[in-house]
Amino acid sequence: MTGGQAPAPHPGARHSARGAVAVMYRLTAGHRPAIAVATVFSVGASALGLAQPLLAQKIVDASGHGRALWPLLALLAALFLAEAATSALGRFLLERMGERVVRGLRLSLVSRLLRLEMREMGRHRSADLISRVTADTTLLREAVAQSLVDLVTGAAVATGAVVMMVLIDPLLLGLVILTVAVAAAIVASLLTGIRTAAERMQAAVGEIAADLERALGALPMVRTHCAEEREERCIGSRVEGSYEAGVRTAKLASVMSPVVEVAVQGSFLLVLVIGGMRVGRSDSLGDVVAFLLYASYLVVPLSSVFRTIGQIQRGMGAYQRVDEVLHLPVEPAGPGFAQEAPGETGECRKPASPSPSPAVPEPGEEPAPVLALSDVWFGYGPDRPVLRGVSLTVPHHRMVALVGRSGAGKSTVFSLVSRFYEPDGGAVLFDGRKASSMGRRECRSRVAVVDQSTHVVHGSLWDNITYGAPDASLPEVEEAVDRANLRPVVDRLPGGLACVLGERGGALSAGERQRVALARALLGEPSLLLLDEPTSHLDALNEAALSQVMQDITKRCAVLVIAHRLSTVQNADHIYVLDAGRVIASGRHDELLVRSDTYRELARAQSLRVSGAEGDAAAPSPVN
């Protein structure tokens, strides 16, 4: 599979064996030349194998007439070795094709997951999505790589065997086919159940991964609340569900296997009994031996085909889950940006084509703000607006703050500015240009975000700081470290910038992880820095230091900061007060203490000094 789109499922393929095989075949699109070459080898091996019973017939007849056998035996050995070598090469080519198909699927899945719409990410559990890339594709690999091999070789051998058996004894062939047909009817009735059980088993495996990832990701909370047994029961119920689905699959498969074996053994017995009775009448012993060998070439491959179809049905259960992900909506490629091929990566800060520069203002004219929201409306669901006509501006080289109670819509503003979501009404503008007329990556190339989650990935401190700018030089990284006040952390860690931080940055405190995120953001030289609760994990001393850092950052870029702790933003150039999704007041700190009841209540709640009966603000200072 070479494209980013998965083949669409056949309309009637969900429980049809024929449809399942058709889907598996469509998965091989782009690999047909390799299949053709491998088929040639497989058919060649089958032809060499089909010649052996004829040679065995001649050997049996020659031994009865006292003729020399060693030339025929040598030729039989040569045919056997040639068949083995040719078959091995054909099988290798087909198995390699299967691996390539699954590689393409995995690359397509990774590409899709990394570009999913944020709404879709909120509807799915990340560990379950990961299991579709790993566990489901592994099961699918077995179906594609092994099953298609058996189908190709089995069909070729069985066809040749039928032709030769017709020439030798049509009556015996009819009896063998009757036995196989009965077995085939029973197997067909079991395939639907196998497919359904396999889908349930794979879904349960995904739920196990999701629940376990949730528990391990919050292991300190689990242990402090003595919830180990509760989580164990929860995950155990998922394991039981997987077990029950697996047992049902095994039950159906266990019924299918004896049916196939009875068909194989019954066919051989019919040939031996009826053929033996006819020796000396109409058939020679050589004919019976040849027919018996051809029966093995027919029945054994067909039994393999039956098992293969069952395996394909189990693989289709996995493919169904893979296909669901491949059809989830992704972020569209914006104007001027080419969609990457699956498996390729692109730096957010390197657009496919240069973006137009903002208009240069006339002399004496104020430049357009680096960010503006104009009457923006937005809701995560229908008829549930979170933002209600929000308008604000962030001028160049200024610090602007958003404050308000929890749930007022502050973080939603950041999500819209980062283009994770699109507004339902109004417009977001960068340097006077509507974001909707720009590619998402172009917008994001102007913005850096330090959010409350402070993401730190497994790797060295250097890897985390340079995540958005992997080609940064040492002096650039050192400058970002100093600007983020991260130098004490670098000096403390063994190995400095080369120190491996561990899973989720376990070697760092929450405040240190925030500073790592800040250094990472500053290294990209953004036009706008978004800070979401930057002091939520800092003590009073580090909070004061960060306040000074934010003032220094405005010399290089604009800053939009969310803060519950007003001491962090009391020196901001402008403050917007949000309440229930609306801007209810704006101004500087001392002005808002006078004009805004909501702001004054927030200040009092945080023990910021408010003096005067009229609400005049004294020089406020944090009390920690």
UniProtKB/TrEMBL annotation:
Q: Which Pfam families match?
A: ABC_membrane, ABC_tran
For whether the record's keyword set contains ATP-binding, the answer is yes
GO cellular component terms listed in the entry, alphabetical order: plasma membrane
Predominant location: membrane
Q: Name one GO molecular function term.
A: ATP hydrolysis activity
**In its keyword annotation, does this UniProt entry include Transport?**
yes
The protein depicted here goes by the name ABC transporter
Under the heading PANTHER family, the entry gives: ABC TRANSPORTER B FAMILY MEMBER 28, ATP-DEPENDENT PERMEASE MDL1, MITOCHONDRIAL
Q: How does it sit in the membrane?
A: Multi-pass membrane protein
Report residue spans for region: Disordered.
336-366
Domain of life, per UniProt, equals Bacteria
Where in or outside the cell it occurs: the entry states: Cell membrane
Residues forming the ABC transporter domain are 371-605
Spell out where the chain crosses the membrane.
Answer: 34-56, 68-94, 148-168, 174-194, 258-276, 288-306
In this chain the ABC transmembrane type-1 domain maps to 36-314
Which keywords belong to this entry?
ATP-binding, Cell membrane, Membrane, Nucleotide-binding, Transmembrane, Transmembrane helix, Transport
Q: Which GO terms describe its biological process?
A: oligopeptide export from mitochondrion
| CDD domains attached to this UniProt entry | ABC_6TM_LmrA_like
Similarity comment text for this entry: Belongs to the ABC transporter superfamily. Lipid exporter (TC 3.A.1.106) family.
